[in-house]
Amino acid sequence: MSAEEWNARYSESGFAYGTEPNDFLKSAFRNLPKGDVLMLADGEGRNGVFLATQGYRVTSVDWSSVGLEKAQALARERGVQITTKLCDLAEFRIEPCRWDGIVSIFCHLPKPARQRLHWACVQGLKQDGTFLLEAYSRKQLRFGTGGPKREDLLMSLDETAEELRGLTIELAQEIERDVFEGKYHAGRSAVIQIIARKSQRR
Ligand SMILES: C[S@@+](CC[C@H](N)C(=O)[O-])C[C@H]1O[C@@H](n2cnc3c(N)ncnc32)[C@H](O)[C@@H]1O
Questions:
Q1: Residue 63: φ, ψ to 5°
Q2: CA of 92, closest atom in ligand 1
Q3: Measured distance CA(126)–CA(111) in Å, rounded
Q4: Tell me: the pLDDT tens digits for 138-182?
Q5: pTM of the entire structure?
Q6: Beta carbon of 89 within 6 Å of any ligand 1 atom
Q7: How many angstroms is it from 62 CA to the middle of ligand 1?
Q8: Torsion of CA 65, 6, 61, 106, to 10 degrees
Q9: Which residue, judged by its Cα, is nearest atom 11 of ligand 1?
Q10: Per-domain residue ranges for the chain?
């Protein structure tokens, strides 16, 4: 989907993925050191706003202006502040050693852009900084309950772990779970989940 198509989706009434955080983020966010967290493809902001309510300084990036406006509105409603940046993640520059946490929830990019972004995430974390990811795996095509319909946009655990080389993988799993996160993510799903940390150099 193009940025215009995402704007059209987010112009519908309500929140496409709800206003509650993603289940995996909610269960795993305590792995993120307190500090600055970069949210990749944060859409309407349910995940970034949640982390802001937990005391993190949040920067949300997405290429949908409508999504980021709704993210700011949600932050105001919840009484927190987030920074939003409108940009194409295929071209986004991540400053090295800048972030305590980087979070990627259902951020599905074409392979070359994804590989480049994951490499930049490894560089962009501070020592002990943590990367959290949940995304649909290729098996999701069988379920048809959300996510891209193109195999090249879906992720494999091995490829993604390889793209994150340089980080210590603390959790890497492919599972099936019930995802009920808004009307576009609804039902039994195949996902990968990763927690990876930039460990101290020895
Ligand atoms: C399925 S939504 C997930 C939104 C959010 N992470 C959540 O879980 O609610 C995917 C998001 O990726 C964003 N996106 C897709 N390709 C992008 C790109 N090249 N640059 C920036 N954002 C992109 C879309 O605008 C959309 O907000």
A1: -100, 10
A2: 20
A3: 25
A4: 999 999 899 999 999 999 999 999 999 999 999 999 999 999 999
A5: 0.97
A6: yes
A7: 6
A8: 160
A9: 41
A10: 3-197
